[in-house]
Each structure stands twice: as structure tokens, then as C-alpha cells.
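Chapter summary example.
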Amino acid sequence: MNHDEILNGLKEGNIKLYQVEKYASSVDEAIKIRRKFIEEFSDSSLDIIAKYDLDLEKASKRNIENPIGTIQIPLGVAGPLKINGDYCNREVYVPLATSEGALVASINRGCSTITLAGGVNTTIISDKMTRAPIIKANSAKDALKVKNYLEENFTKLKKIAEETTNHGKLLKINPILIIGNYIYPRFVYSTGDSMGMNMVTIATEKILEDLEKSLDVTHIALSGNVCVDKKPAAINMIEGRGKTISADIIIPEEIVKEKLKTTASAIQEVNISKNLIGSASAGSLSYNAHYANMIAAIFLATGQDLAHTVEGSLGITTAEDRNGDLYFSVNLPDLPIATVGGGTSIETANEGLNILNVAGSSKVQEFAEIIAGVVLAGELSLISALAAGHLARAHKELGRG
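The structure predicted for these 401 residues follows.
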């Protein structure tokens, strides 16, 4: 079929959007036809969306369906940011994709302060990915038998899971919740440099096949929301998911005054009254000022799953006046990230990772420590601006509406 015949087929409903590649001579032609259909349907011009350098033929095989082009988001850099970590021990410039005016400038101020003070200390506390299916038994008593089976046959189930992957390891099954005749076991894995959701899903599915053969149970769904994936949850705050990271720094009194234009005691009070008391009063699960800003910007720049910003925004900020010096820390209990697979293979994302020198295998721990440092930089800058009364003025001076 030629271009016009396929386009008419779309308009008449005889061809579905996902079928265009079947009739077009190439993926590139299919993209143009689909985009033309959307332009005519919406009476709009998509000239900018049509301009891109990405390999959408490759992306259409693993990253996107029904492609019509790409979007572009402004990309800035902040830095240098000095990281003193177990895996990353160097200065970095950080790519940040955002349309929020003043954000990169604010993070850059935090980076400058951190680097002047000698760098941010970062520690990876744990590294895990989870999948928690729903299993249905005939009764609560039978559900308890399933729980016992999972506990007593862990070695067997671990072997079944790990036969599906070269990199994943089943670490534990905990908690195993019983609600009536439903069982919600939380399978906890390590997944290497991959974020690992596909990996743990496939491994868990094999375990469920064994359960259905061995016990009188039914597998209802591979995810029962106890994982907890792409949703804010107390269990992830407590148990951790993805990378669990801590970052902290002591900033001398003179740097607090010169760079942040405030005092350690003022920052401490803002943090307590805003991030701790204010968040608790609102029933928030996040006790921080704006982790999501930094997480979203660096996720966009490096091809991470943007929905995991929900999890990455969880965490607690602490600030302490130590005789005029400022102790400042951030804790990120739930940071699912990757340096291989998924969106990291998209050309612009790969370049973003290359700016940080963390693209590819054996780099994800470095990447995690950099993210923790960036979050601390942004958090420090905003809370300092609030303590100094500079927030509104900064937005006004930078012309941000």
C-alpha cells in the first residue's frame, strides 16, 4: 500500500495505529504516516515533533509504540559537584532536563557550596528490587500452608528464580502477608546494573508456576501492590527498594554565611518546622523539600523510568547546627535506577550518562551516589533560600513566572 492508501485506511478505521508498520515500506514511513494522521485529526502542525536524530526504528522495538516523533526538553548542567563516595570519588557535571526555571541555578548553587566545603559523602546502604504477586488459596488456613511452604522451600525457590537470569539473585521472601485467603509474598532480589523490574517479574513467574504445581493455589496477578512499584509506600521507606542511599556533609560556618547567606541554626529550624513537622502534619510519606525536582530532572536526562520519580521522591532530610557549622543529610530509601537496559539505550540518554561517565555495566553504584549528591545539593539550596528569605526574589530576578 502507498502512503495515501494507508492514511485513508487510518481515517476510515480499516487500519489501526499499531498496524501502520505492517503496510508501510519502512518504520520511518510508518512514523510519517501516523504523524500526518494525527495532524489532520487534531488540526495541528507537528513540525517540531517531526525533527529528531534518535533512531526510532530501534526505539520502536523496545521503548515506544505508535511513534510519531520525539519531544525536546531543555537540558542544563550543574557543577562541578564533588562526590566522596565508596564508588564515585571525583567531581562531576550533572545533566538536568527540566522546564522549571531557576531549578538548575538552584542546584548549581548547592553544588558550588558542597564542592567548596570538600564534597558530599555518599553511602549505598542496600540494593534490591522487589516483586510481590497475589496468590489465592481456598481458606486462611490453606493460605498459612502457602506461607510455610515459601519459608521452608526458599533454597529450592531461589534456584528456580535464578535459573531465569544471569544477574539476578533472590535474597529473601519478606514479608509474606496473609489477608483472608490471599497471600502477598514480597520477593526481594539483587539485579546488578539493570533496574531489574523485567528480570524479577520473569523470575517470580517461574516460582509461581512451581507453587501452582505443588499446592492447591491460584496465581491471581504478578503484582499485588506490595512490591510497591511506582507508588509512594511506607514499606519502601522502611525496607528500601532499588538503591537505598545516604548522603551527608558538614559545611563550615563561614561557607554557610558566604555561599548560602544564612546560618546553620536558621536552616535547622526551617528543616524541622517544614520538612519534619509540616510533612507529619500533612500525613506525607516524604519528609523533604523537593527531592522530586532533582530526581525527575536527572531521570529525564539519563533515560530512567520517569514513573519511578514517585519512589525516588521518598526520603528524609536532616539538618543540625553544630556550633555554627551545618551538618546536612538526605536519605533516599527507594531509588530504582539503571545504567544498562530500558531507556538508557536511547541516544540522548546514553549521552547524558556519558557526561557522568556511568554508562554501561558496573557503573550503577557510581550513578546512585551521584544522584544522592545532586539531591543533597538541590535540597540544601532550597532550604537555605527559604531560611534566608531569598526564594521569591530568586524566581523574580531570574524572570520566572
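To summarize the output: The radius of gyration is 24 Å.
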